[in-house]
């Protein structure tokens, strides 16, 4: 199966991630059969699709056939034979919605258990050539299925329609030809798939992100970063709205590390820092790096401590109380569209 | 002292960081007195300045007075009375160069020891109102000076002329008025200063970066990421040159996390992930985050192990052997200029 043979996609779950996958599939001219048993899911999805059409880069579909190719169904079972690929996003949907995807699973309160039963059902009722892709933030697929044939886990990033990275992770039993076919498919949608060689909790991106979050929580909890800001600096008024006065830690990322990481990853950044020689970098800056890591290990944020977590929540909530989430999301989409365009020009 | 009163800046050390500070100061119309005893430092600096003029955003100086305002001196001591601010960058310069900044320190082979003696000398010979700023990647300034009056540590990021973030860290004994004056000055140059409330090894940005590097080293060492890539995806040919086929781990950053972090830092990203509620995010995704962090702690890259480090160097060197560093740096500058422009528009 090649990417070009994938014409009809099934989407199970239309939470934020599922809806943005649906928007992307439709914008690329695919036929999409969608299900989500959550109350009001269909109208919410339509609202999302209309709002986000313009933000999708390199669209193929016109505004008209963008929506015409969508079929929302109450039960996807009768359609399983028509699909070329299933994008399972139920973990990302609300728990209430997930529980009702298939009536047989209405009594499944635990997500992993629910997912296992959902995949067993899909395995039993889907032709063997159909690629089954699961959006997960870090669950290795061998925990979901005993005998996988063609499933691949993808850690999606928001907004799915904009970010270049589709996701990662391959089940050890997933055939290479299926990985290749899935990569070709996602690449044809403008995604940039990353393959994980060995199953790893959190795959790659979420582990890197977790590392940053853990240290950020520690720095905020320990009072290392200031809550106050001394001005808007070079930020535009709109950007300053959510970046000044309460997000000093975040500014370290948005005005520094993030800008650089949007161009060069950690290894290339090390390489540039070492004048083109990674060994030189390690010999030269390794000892400093080690001393910071030792200090960080000594001051790890304790994810087991309810007190630490509640204190952190209180601190953060005070800082972010005035954030306009909808406006921020809109600004993010504008920014990412511009950024991806800059990237594609160099 | 306000930022507008800073007209003449001294730069000690003209390695990569010192040279880019010099370029920025000159481009902003300041008079700059520079010293670096390394052989060929003056001609190398001139070469750097000419090459990088165009890449500096929002220049005030014309190409002519950009270079006219520069004075390269063998010994900066006679000029200390004329300076409004000293940008000390000797740690970033080559060790050989550092040792010879002041003849009295020629026998100082240890950087920390050298820095201490340099600052003691500057303290003794500089008028009290002069701000002394030290570029350091993570040395708390109380380790450098016993009685600081007006010094601030700044962790610079490459390229200094482009990145919005100047740096961070304040000495606990540094007066608030000096911190404010320094922030105003750097902000007037287009930087976005971050204040560290309590001295911390590695400040903020380098700790976040270290967290990512440590996990990246672990993932590469453990063979989790694939060395091969399946194609160039959406990357342009130029970008693919250093991004495909050998930098799968880096792609996770440049095609995903980095793009997002260029817009929203870790806390805002959590907030968006929690639908505007950090507490919801923590309750909802905290357990998954914890499970990944536990797994990461179990598989930490051992910075003490020579074997692990040598194996990593070998793996990375194989991957990056064909990288054209000069071209990559040029692409980075083009990309960051465009990115900062997109940022300022939203």
How would you describe this structure to a colleague?
- 2 copies of one chain form a homodimer.
- The first copy, chain A, has a 6-stranded parallel beta sheet.
- The first copy, chain A, is built from 13 helices and 6 strands.
- In chain A, helix 1 links the parallel strand 1 (8-12) and strand 2.
- The radius of gyration of chain A is 22 Å and the shape is globular.
- Chain A has 2 domains: 3-188, Rossmann fold, CATH 3.40.50; 205-263 and 302-345, no CATH class.
- With 346 residues, the first copy, chain A, is of the alpha/beta class.
- Chains A, B: Residues 8-198 form the 3-hydroxyacyl-CoA dehydrogenase NAD binding domain.
- Chains A, B: This is 3-hydroxyacyl-CoA dehydrogenase NAD binding domain-containing protein.
- Chains A, B: One of its GO terms (biological process) is fatty acid metabolic process.
- Chains A, B: Belongs to the 3-hydroxyacyl-CoA dehydrogenase family.
Count of alpha/pi helices of chain A: 13
CATH fold name of the largest domain in chain A, please?
Rossmann fold
What is the CATH architecture annotation of the largest domain in chain A?
3-Layer(aba) Sandwich
Work out the largest interface and the residue count of each chain. A-B, 122 and 122 residues
How many domains comprise the coordinates of chain A? Answer: 2
- Residue ranges of chain A: pLDDT <50 for 5 or more in a row? 92-110, 147-151, 161-170, 229-245
How much of the polypeptide of chain A forms β-strand, as a percent range? 5-15%
**Could you state the CATH homologous superfamily of the largest domain in chain A?**
NAD(P)-binding Rossmann-like Domain
Report the structural category of chain A: alpha/beta
Strand order of the largest sheet of chain A: 3-2-1-4-5-6
Radius of gyration of chain A: 22 Å
Reading off the top of the CATH hierarchy, the class of the largest domain in chain A is best stated as Alpha Beta
Please tell me the overall pLDDT of chain A.
76
**Fraction of helical residues of chain A:** 40-55%
